[in-house]
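A common beginner's mistake is to predict each chain separately and then try to dock the pieces by hand. The better habit, illustrated here, is to supply every component at once so that their relative placement is modeled jointly.
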Amino acid sequence: MDETLVGEIDFDPAALQEKYAYERDRRVRPEGKSQYVGTSGKFARFSADPWAGKIARDPIEDHSQVIIAGGGFGGLLMGARLREAGLTDIRIIEVASDFGGTWYWNRYPGAMCDVEAHIYLPLLEELNYAPKHRYSYAPEMLEHSQRIGKAYDLYDKACFQTSITDATWAEDSQRWTITTDRGDTMTADFFIAACGRQSLPKLPQIPGIDDFRGHTFHTSRWDYQYTGGDHTGGMSKIEGKTIGFIGTGATALQAVPELAKDVAELFVFQRTPSTVGQRDQFETGPDWVDMTVPGWQRERRDNFQKHVRGPRPDTDPVDDGWTAIFHQLGAETPTQIAERLGRTPTAKELAYVSEVNDFKVMNALRERVETEVEDPETAEALKPWYRWWCKRPGFHDDYLRAFNRPNVTLVDTDGQGVERFTESEVVVAGKEYAVDCLIFGTGFEASVPYTHLTGFDIIGRHGPISTHWQNGVRTLHGLTTDGFPNLFFIGGNIQTANAVNAVHLLDEQARYVAFVVAELGRRGVTTIEPRGADVDAYVNEVRVHPNNLANLEFYKGCTPGYYNNEGKATKNDDLFNGGRYGDGPMAYYELLRRQQDHNSLDGYNLASRGAK
Ligand code: NDP
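With all components supplied together, the output reads:
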């Protein structure tokens, strides 16, 4: 490439390209994502609810205006926005014993949100709640979920510890019938699936996993009975124990530093290091953000999203590791590059500029490891060799320093993962590490069929959604599908925007769906269903959008992980469920907002009960 394209640089891009390819290739496994198993069957204890006893109740047979599957931030936002739109009869069905979703389950020590609290926590403006820290800790987010549930009367009809077994559209009554594992048969005019996207813990199929006799648990069901203490630490029961922690993803970044403080000896088993940017956590008082300005939270979220993808606004109120790195990656716009070069750069040249910017970001992150970690060999092993967006970027102030403690050892598996377990040991490259307890920070099932994620099928006018989507997800804007009247999807990564701040996406979708339901009421319409032709057009738009095709190429070159179907992505469908809205989150939100501004239900067939 022409050197004038990127100016003077003090590294060799070709050497880095080669190193990244080498590190990637040796990590790709022939079995792809089937290297993992879920926690059903013999591993059920890894996903049991440690936080509550069984709630006794009788089966329910009744009707609601709306039934929402899922009581995490998506379901709560949906319930809240529906209430604001005037609906009163709403039931949330949730597997857990309370609201909270991710933040109900994940209570591991140090658990926190990795996006700024003022843009992440839902409904801060409406509830006039100011988060305590720049990045909220898990207990605050669980409490906030309960705050939303109470403020919007969502507890009244909520059914916890309840798994839906089937959702079936009844043509004669024009209603959904929902059955559950509690023997319930409930009906609803509208059914909304807000089932999350990474809620099912997964385990690597490491040989000997059944033979290990020590204690074991997954980070999303932290066993405080075993460790003692709580989210803030004080895990006195492990003072004399040796613990093996498997995984070095975003969860490990938060849990390892806390574990390191209390355990006698900690081995962290690493396959691929995460990027670890500076976090800069601090307490935020009630006046840290001016919460009196109407619309402040949406404005702040929009501003953040524009810094992520551009065009970059003049102000940067969030001003954190995310926005700093996105600024470095997009240091110059294509127009600025053209002005500098005095000609229009080709797409290949633009891609090269962006790759070189990425090398600069990653070089700085690798230098950060050297600054933070005292032992040079450990520091070398903790350096990530891939493009920044290949894995969910991590940020933490104490993770790297934890490896300076005498009781913490990084066991780098040279990209191969743990070899096997014996009754009491973890084996890596033939070397045995005796441990009392194994903690799996190995993440959650991803890119699985939608009905695997939900745990139930949805039967529409012409049959089940598992069949309807067997050749690929089909939606209109990731929100509805043809043949399934009065059904909406919230979040779940299905053909929606790819947002760093997932709650921004959930809220924009919830506002839109609440608008649709209220608008149907205003028009006296009882059913809504997207037109097949509009669904076809949208699916095609997602499949062939140039940004999505470019994304696919990008991810093919990435180190394996759930972002690229464990290195096996061959089509956009493999990048999460069904690909993404090609023009990015802000354009997606603006599309939904325009329809609300114009009271538009374009793309849908509408009908009234009784009408044929
Ligand atoms: P991840 O899937 O990100 O990480 C799993 C880890 O397990 C990886 O380091 C993986 O290595 C490792 N692993 C898998 N198999 C093996 C093996 N056989 N031997 C050794 N290591 C193995 O899970 P997390 O729980 O860390 O994160 C899950 C999701 O939750 C992510 O999207 C994350 O961003 C999100 N999260 C969000 C937070 C927030 O604040 N919003 C906080 C914490 C998590 P490899 O990389 O090689 O596959």
